[in-house]
């Protein structure tokens, strides 16, 4: 919220304090209404039915708030205690984000004395089925995501994302170890939120860049299906690495950003993509985390690039735009040209 008056801030703080007490009660709706008669019935219902933890932010059901635009400024009307309602000015990064959308249940969060609204919106988006290229995305440990664009008009151009995420994880793991040796448990708990925010910031940037590239090149995004990867991890070190990498979160970010932009997204199996040479289609060896060497043709590639290329080529080899199936990737002349 942008510079609300002190009176409005006080109203929000009082509402937030009552909300926190209602959440702590963990009671049913009727009990909450009896204990807190000053609060709006929608807030009581949210506290009784929608809260998932004792630190749940203030739920604001869609029926309780109203958003309007006056000249160049946006305002939102929120009910507070005793049946009162306050109009709060707020900023939005791009006005187009609020045009032609339906507002859903949202949340109000207090942070360092300031209030923010996590506004949830919904809109209908036409899915693009007439794509002319594909963007294969390989999720890995060294690089969180490697994207390769395959098109009949251009060669594959790999992009590597998220190498610094591993550095962020290592930094905070080292700090936790040192603080643990000094028994500073409170500092360790605080640090968890900082690490998560830093990683989430990188994941949003990665997913935004991938979706933007796909939209600009009229491409469908091909993602590897990593379901069950944690169960297949062998060894203590590899298990720790896999458990710390945010594969599922990045997949969710890419999926909803792609849906918002109308970019089609397809999930395919990653089986054998890291062990097959994308040039000759024969099995090779991944001699290290970042290097793949083909024992048949002698080519050497970045292992993540090779996996992303194989993922995109596998989709092209299994489906056509008209829905046909069954032809092999090596039979496509433009794929051989791209690989060379």
Give the oligomeric state of the chains in this entry, treating copies of one chain as homo and distinct chains as hetero: single chain
Shape: elongated
Report the major sheet: 5 strands, mixed
Cα-based radius of gyration, to the nearest Å: 25 Å
First-last Cα distance: 55 Å
Mean pLDDT: 80
Helix content: 40-55%
Low-pLDDT residue spans: 320-340
* N-to-C series of helices and strands: HHHEEEEEEEEEEEHHEHHHEEEHH
- Give the strand content: 15-25%
Number of helices: 10
| Secondary structural class | alpha+beta
- Read across the widest sheet, the strand sequence of neighbours is 11-10-9-12-13
Distinctive features:
340 residues, alpha+beta, 3-stranded antiparallel beta sheet, 21% strand, disordered C terminus
Would you summarize the structure shown here?
This protein has 340 residues and is an alpha+beta fold.
Structure description:
- The structure is a single chain.
- With 340 residues, the protein is α+β, with helices and mostly antiparallel strands.
- It contains ten helices and 15 strands.
- The protein has helices spanning 6-25, 29-35, 41-49, 163-181, 185-216, 229-232, 236-244, 247-261, 303-318, 333-339; strands spanning 58-60, 66-70, 73-79, 85-90, 102-103, 106-111, 114-118, 121-122, 133-139, 145-151, 159-161, 219-225, 265-269, 291-293, 300-302.
- Strands 11-10-9-12-13 form a five-stranded mixed β-sheet, sandwiched between helices. A three-stranded antiparallel β-sheet has the order 1-6-7. The protein has a three-stranded antiparallel β-sheet with strand order 2-3-4, with no helix packed on it.
- A hairpin with a 5-residue loop joins β9 and β10.
- α4 packs antiparallel against α5 (185-216).
């Amino acid at each position: 919220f942008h510079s609300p008056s002190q009176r409005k801030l006080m109203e929000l703080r009082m509402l937030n304090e009552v909300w926190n007490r209602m959440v702590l009660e963990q009671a049913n709706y009727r009990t909450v209404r009896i204990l807190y008669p000053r609060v709006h019935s929608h807030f009581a219902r949210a506290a009784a039915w929608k809260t998932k933890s004792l630190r749940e932010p203030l739920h604001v059901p869609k029926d309780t708030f109203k958003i309007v635009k006056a000249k160049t400024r946006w305002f939102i009307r929120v009910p507070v205690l005793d049946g009162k309602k306050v109009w709060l000015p707020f900023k939005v990064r791009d006005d187009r984000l609020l045009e032609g959308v339906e507002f859903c249940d949202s949340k109000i969060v207090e942070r360092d004395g300031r209030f923010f609204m996590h506004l949830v919106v919904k809109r209908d988006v036409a899915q693009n089925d007439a794509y002319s290229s594909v963007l294969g995305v390989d999720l890995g440990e060294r690089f969180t995501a490697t994207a390769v664009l395959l098109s009949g008009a251009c060669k594959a151009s790999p992009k590597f994302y998220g190498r610094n995420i591993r550095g962020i994880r290592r930094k905070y793991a080292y700090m936790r170890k040192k603080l643990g040796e000094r028994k500073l448990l409170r500092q360790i708990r605080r640090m968890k939120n900082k690490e998560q925010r830093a990683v989430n910031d990188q994941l949003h940037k990665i997913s935004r860049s991938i979706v933007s590239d796909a939209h600009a090149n009229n491409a469908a995004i091909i993602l590897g299906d990593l379901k069950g990867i944690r169960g297949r991890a062998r060894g203590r070190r590899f298990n720790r690495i896999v458990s710390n990498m945010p594969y599922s979160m990045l997949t969710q970010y890419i999926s909803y950003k792609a849906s918002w932009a109308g970019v089609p997204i397809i999930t395919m199996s990653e089986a054998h993509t890291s062990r097959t040479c994308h040039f000759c289609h024969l099995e090779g060896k991944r001699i290290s985390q970042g290097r793949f060497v083909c024992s048949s043709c002698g080519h050497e590639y970045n292992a993540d690039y090779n996996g992303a290329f194989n993922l995109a080529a596998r989709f092209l080899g299994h489906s056509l735009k008209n829905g046909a199936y069954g032809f092999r990737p090596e039979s496509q002349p433009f794929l051989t040209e791209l690989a060379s």
